[in-house]
Write a structure and sequence with these properties.
The structure is a homodimer of 591-residue chains. With 591 residues, chain A is α/β, with parallel strands linked by helices. In chain A, 37% of the residues lie in helices and 18% in strands. In chain A, the strands form four sheets. Chain A has a seven-stranded mixed beta sheet with strand order 13-12-9-8-7-6-15, with helices on one face. In chain A, strands 5-4-3-2-1-14 form a six-stranded mixed beta sheet. A five-stranded parallel beta sheet of chain A has the order 18-17-16-19-20, sandwiched between helices. Chain A starts with a strand and ends in a 28-residue tail after the last helix. About 3% of the residues of chain A have low confidence. At the A-B interface, helix 2, helix 3, helix 8, helix 11 and helix 12 of A face helix 2, helix 3, helix 8, helix 11 and helix 12 of B.
Chain lengths: 591, 591
């Protein structure tokens, strides 16, 4: 039994924090050395954090990234490492002859995986397939690589590649397998969205089986602005069976013994053998001679982490997203406006799970339209979550606005204007508390509201981070129920889940006065916003034409609001923000 | 003398308005037919407007775009046309063998130029070089084309290509010229920034001369969200001399007789001939037989439009940007908060030039910190611009906030919080007027403020369109002086230009209490924000290290504000918004 001992560091890197990231990388390398690993793999762009966006256009940043890698290299004695960083300069194979996207950077910049052994940078693999869709902008920064190295390390043949590369059947793993690779080391910064984990695992199993190789998938973990990387690193054997799973939404170090001798004995059907044989792309074989000989103990084959249910995954993503946004932006405490509704209740529960109750302050800002029940529910929620509250009624301020505007508004009837004034008074109060005490304001709007514009710009939309911005209202209820089941006792009062949603900005207001009921609204929104379906298609799904037309129009007309909304955590296939880039000036009416 | 009569339609398309764009295209075709043109060229993506952004991911939108093109084709009797639209499907030459960016769309989508003759779509040229830097995201949507058609039309050989294609010396024009093209029809949606026109003209002159061809450059005109297309279409002869210029910042139809016989006689140096001869890329020769024979009158060689000075260009871009944002988003009137400062004065002047004085309402919102001079200056400006004003003092509302917050703020000293509350009261009042009367709020912050975060989120930053967001403060003064020279009498009172800038949010406040003087600040900002220079580099330019370090830190820490700012007009090499994509969570400190 020939064994290759691999360590995978599922790391929470921070964008721009080169020193902090290197410190973390070095710490993991030391642990992996103690565990006698042959090689340790780190996520894509572990040195810079992902995505560094336009930092990549700054020559000084690229230089410091390279120096940070040198620091990592100096710590790789008696262990090999694969580390994501930003590579620069063309190898002889990366000269491009065909017309492709021209990057803005003055230098040829690559999304690179450093292969390090014996305190030496052996080679750099440059990512070949650059995602430039959804939240990704990699063609803005990087040139695609051309070289396909295959590394022979302590007798085991290893193919290194990066993230998107392995999503294509004809990716570099094929040429690497054809050239004899037994283990594919694929490093990733793959952000979470609902159901992605399952696709990812199916795809990796297929790649392993198709190519008859062990696939190791090392993912980033942690929150970065709109994105949450979910970890869930994987190792699959040559038959596509999962050997081990990394933790979900937590840092983790996996050390596993791979039976590479078995790879050579794997039976690949003839047709697939021919397909592999046709992967004629020239690979570059690099032998790392035995400059170190790690001693081995007993085989290591940990059981690995539990697979979360989809709703648990979403909740975990929201908690980690909040924790990391707050921590990485050097805040400690947050403010949440508590209305007694389900959105602010869920947001508060998530914040408490992310930061602890003592770092969350609830703010009640009642008006004459606020019901007794809402005040009671907000107070009860705070009591159960053990968070402090402040109460600042808005009536006096609202009256001052109406008086000051009475002359200009003379002869005009009350309308949405007066509702928005109230919401904006609350926004101003929240920001005043934020300015005075240095707390971050978390907003509480859900995806259904953000979609149709049922929210007040600078009012309830005012704040630094929009926790459940990508969570449809119907899922808000599901998550609230999940959270109530999770703890010893339900934290969100039952009445919050049972009563009809209302903005409480005028007497007897109900969301359903302005919007279709959420169980009807949400699937229409999903079809339009996430799936680009046309009016006719949505009607054919079984919805009333007038309703669909009204919903689409509301979505399309609210783009200006969303453009000024705070960022929030992506949990669906398509979130607002970088993920969906619509013009504001847009006369296309798909109705 | 063999003559090719070309028409160039410098058109103001609207994103998403397929019907409106087709109506405009058909109108221009009719005019060009009257003028007996052989061919009329329209801008890049004239059918959809540019950039359509994620509309391009909607199958229904692509289908309607194709139908819109069919409508255009049906009008091209007895004239040929080159029309920008979205092409779909691979030609045999556009199958890609090399790894390139994988687009998100399910279909192979192209930025295309339809070549139409005799009511027939003769061929489509697919753009080969897709810009994916700065404000451009073309790799998100399009596959690069591979085919290079050369069209023989009424005896003249024409090479069609699109925008970025011609910015590369080895672009398709080279192969087209080598294959005998006499005229290059290059169609564009090229957004304005300062000094771009000069680079563009130099580049086009070089391409014409290098390849010994006539180059016709048809540009879009008009505002689209952050972008203003400046028109300034050009025709250059085979010696690189400008034959004719389109208007700046206005629609225009140019009809010009090109002496194509002279192209064949042009003397190309031997070295360049060899270089051209090496352009071996296979071109596809398409002969459009003489299905129509336009009769010709006397040769047409108009003198063309005047070249504007750089500052005039900026002013014109701002006026057109405001006019089109307002018009294309179906507003009629705008609101501007008038403080008596230079920013709001300039913004008001631009708005009046864009929309007429009767469509601009000035709002004065004085506080106890507002000086008598500021009130006088704001009133005098409004008088000279002939715009109506409303005055809504904020003192009463401010007192109500302080009272309501007194308990929570007990024991805390006044700080920036109280300044921000005032700014946010003004934001709320402006939005209340906007909601009640349906006017668009224009914000008045300049680029220097936006850079260092010297502005209140939801306060003075509250509004739909930020007119001078990309104009540094020192240039605000230059533009104000330019405007004062332009009219019969100075519209911006002299005292506005002379007094020290102040936010007037506390007693005796001056911008210079918090910021370096603007003539010092602006070049540092330019170096950091627009040129990606490091601290050391900027210090070497002759600035004090501590000042530079402070400025860089202010810029980097204000990203969260800019992310929620209204969009505004790009006029520099690098604007905020789509042009500069920085992470909010970012621990890189280049200081």
């Amino acid at each position: 039994m020939r064994i290759f001992r691999i360590a995978m560091a599922q790391m929470n890197a921070t964008v721009g924090d080169l020193e902090g990231n290197v410190r973390a990388i070095v710490k993991w390398i030391k642990e992996a050395k103690k565990a006698k690993a042959d090689l340790i793999a780190f996520p894509e762009l572990a040195v810079t954090g992902y995505p560094p966006e336009d930092l990549l256009l700054m020559p000084r940043f690229l230089e410091l990234n390279r120096r940070a890698l040198d620091e990592v290299v100096s710590h790789c004695r008696a262990i090999a490492a694969v580390v994501g960083y930003v590579g620069q300069g063309a190898s002889s194979e990366s000269k491009l002859k065909e017309p492709i996207t021209v990057p803005a950077a003055r230098y040829e910049v690559h999304n690179a995986a450093a292969v390090i052994a014996d305190q030496r940078l052996v080679t750099s693999y440059y990512k070949r397939y650059l995602p430039n869709y959804g939240v990704f902008d990699e063609s803005r920064y990087f040139c695609p690589g051309r070289g396909i190295p295959v590394i022979v390390l302590n007798g085991t043949t290893v193919g290194v590649n990066i993230c998107e590369d392995i999503w294509l059947p004809e990716g570099p793993h094929r040429a690497q397998a054809a050239a004899g690779a037994e283990v594919i080391v694929n490093i990733n910064a793959s952000p979470f969205h609902l159901a992605k984990g399952r696709f990812r695992e199916q795809m990796l199993a297929t790649r392993a089986r198709d190519n008859g190789v062990i696939v190791t998938y090392t993912n980033m973990v942690g929150g970065q602005d709109e994105l949450v990387f979910d970890g869930n690193s994987l190792i699959l054997d040559q038959a596509g069976e999962v050997l081990v799973r990394g933790k979900a939404f937590e840092e983790d170090l996996l050390v596993v013994d791979l039976d590479v001798a078995a790879v050579g004995r794997s039976r690949i059907p003839h047709a697939r053998k021919r397909w592999l044989g046709q992967a004629k792309t020239r690979t570059e074989r690099i032998v790392v001679s035995g400059a170190y000989t790690p001693r081995r103990g007993a085989p290591i084959l940990p059981g690995g982490a539990r697979v979360l249910e989809p709703l648990e995954e979403v909740y975990s993503a929201l908690v980690l997203g909040v924790r990391d946004y707050v921590r990485k932006n050097r805040f400690r405490r947050v403010l949440i406006g508590l209305s007694g509704g389900v959105d602010s209740s869920l947001t508060a529960a998530i914040a408490v799970d992310a930061l602890g109750g003592k770092n969350v302050l609830g703010v009640l800002m009642p008006s004459p339209h606020t019901s007794r029940e809402s005040r009671e529910d907000a107070t009860e929620l705070a009591r159960r979550l053990r968070i402090e509250t402040r109460t600042i009624p808005i009536t006096r301020i609202f009256k001052a606005y109406l008086q000051s505007l009475s002359e200009v508004f003379q002869g005009r009837r009350p309308d949405a204007t007066e509702e928005n004034i109230q919401a904006r008074i609350r926004g101003n109060l929240m920001m005043a508390l934020s300015n005075k005490f240095g707390y971050l304001v978390l907003t509480t709007g859900n995806k259904s509201e953000m979609s149709v514009g049922y929210a007040t710009l600078y009012g309830d939309m005012a704040g630094g981070f929009a926790v459940i911005k990508d969570v449809p209202k119907t899922m808000v209820y599901e998550l609230a129920r999940l959270r109530n089941r999770g703890g010893a006792a339900a934290v969100i009062p039952k009445r919050v889940l049972d009563k009809a949603p209302s903005a409480e900005l005028k007497p007897d207001q109900r969301d359903e006065d302005s919007l279709p009921p959420y169980p009807l609204l949400d699937p229409i929104l999903q079809a339009h916003v996430e799936e680009d379906r046309s009016l006719d298609e949505i009607v054919r799904m079984g919805f009333d034409r007038e309703t669909v037309s009204k919903v689409i129009t509301m979505v399309d007309r609210s783009e200006y609001k969303r453009r000024q909304a705070p960022i929030g955590i992506k949990i669906t296939h398509r979130a607002f923000g970088k993920d969906r880039r619509m013009p504001i000036t847009n006369q296309y009416r798909n109705v």
